[in-house]
Amino acid sequence: MANNIQGFVMIGAQAIVFSITNLRTLKTIERGRYPVAIGDDFYAEHEILPDTVDAIVQAFDAINQIFKDYGVPTVNVFASTSWAEADNAEFVRDQLYTRTGWLIKTTSLSEEAFFRTQAIMVKFPQFKSITQKGTVLIDISSGSVELTTFSNGVFGFSRNLSLGPLRVYEIMSDVQRSVTNYVEVMRDYIDSRLLDFMRLLPQGVEYTNMILMGSNLSIFQNIIPEGKHQVETDRPGFDLLYDEVTKASDQYLADTYDLTSDQTSLVLPTVLLVYRLVETLNSQSIWISDLKAIDGIEVNAAHEGGFKKLGFDPNEEIVISANNLAERYQVDEAHMQATRTVALQLFDRLKKLHGMGKRERLLLEVAATVSDIGSYIETHKHYAHSNYIIKASEIMGLNDLEVTMVATITRFHSSITPQSDLKNFPTMSTENRLVVAKLSALLRVADSLDASRQQKIQQLRVSVKPNEVLLTARADDDIELERWTLARKGKFFSEVFGLGLELKGRNIL
After folding, report:
1. What band does 1 get if pLDDT is binned at 50, 70 and 90?
2. Could you tell me the CATH number of the domain that includes residue 16?
3. Domain housing 174
4. Residue 14 in contact with residue 7, Cβ under 8 Å?
5. Is residue 248 packed enough to be buried (19+ CB in 10 Å), middle (13-18) or exposed (0-12)?
6. Under a CB-based contact definition with an 8 Å cutoff, are residues 190 and 265 in contact?
7. Is residue 192 part of a domain?
């Protein structure tokens, strides 16, 4: 097992944050930040400039010395999603590896959302009590805003908007010089970008509580009392802050809230964005937390490394996110549930045959959930539509490679059989292509067993024979259509696993 004392580094748009954490207790031993305005390059130049690369190297060297002083054996380095917006991001990533030996992992939007919810669920003291009512978690980074909802203590919905204060500031900077009603124009711009989010929110839920967190909350974090990690305010108190900010000069804000010039320029778009969300959602109680994505990364590392039990299943968020996507595209829920149940049953019963683990099982569960979303566009070749919809969607907690794998599994779950040559799969490692092939084969079989869309099979027994896998079904109706479909779609299973398939069944009535 890995050492429980580990170092973490997160590259954001305005700073590089690091921590040293005991993963058994989730106690922070050391934490700090190095201001590096990488986001100025992202949004203004669309690339990371050489001087900025040098600044990152200097920060890495200083952080690495701290890690060495503490004897930290394991270092995990992440970059926020905005990093990938730079045209030369991969070149810089390689340069940094060559110069420092640290390999950077770029997080996806859905991964960052996943980390933030884990941070809140584990480290926010009032989480269980306040999320019994409708609660929206708003994470504000320089380039984007992630909105995540909870109700009855359970994760409900997540959506990312390219509406971070630095991005808004860069877009609106020309407007500021040419109009007198700058605040109104910025408010209209923000409102226009919030429309899609509001339209997709679950109906019938009032979001009376709001939790604010993120790397771009300098003005809010400076009002958190010393020694505390969060503070609560009410709607009138926030209204007063909004009035103050919209009427104050930059010098007043810098002096009053102890802000740098870079932070001061982002105060107005930050406060205006939050204010419009508070008004739109009619939130009454607002919590301001200093938790950040790096806190969630620590929680995830503790869970994945087996150091700490979290008291909840993190994968549940991923499955709920997939269910939300399926619901949005109006899949046949009964067929989806039947297919998913059988797919997971096949995975569990055939574990010695396929040799895959828990993460692959989760990918199969997600793929079975969203495999038919393409039917929303067109039933004919729906698998092709499912493929590109999934690639363009956010599934909480999956990285970009895993989203591509899920999309490919759904692409090949239909009767259009890929050749056994793995070159027919998208570009990825041979190991990942094999995983996709195996999971596609299992999903094909599961989908075949509800070919009639009537959920005829009530029980299924799976037996591995020397030359075949025998499926024995108990059904409440004739299953000849399922048998015929399996004969066609099951050929790929035989190609992948080297065993034939046979379906036997008897009527239970």
Report:
1. very low
2. 3.30.420.40
3. 125-290
4. no
5. middle
6. no
7. yes
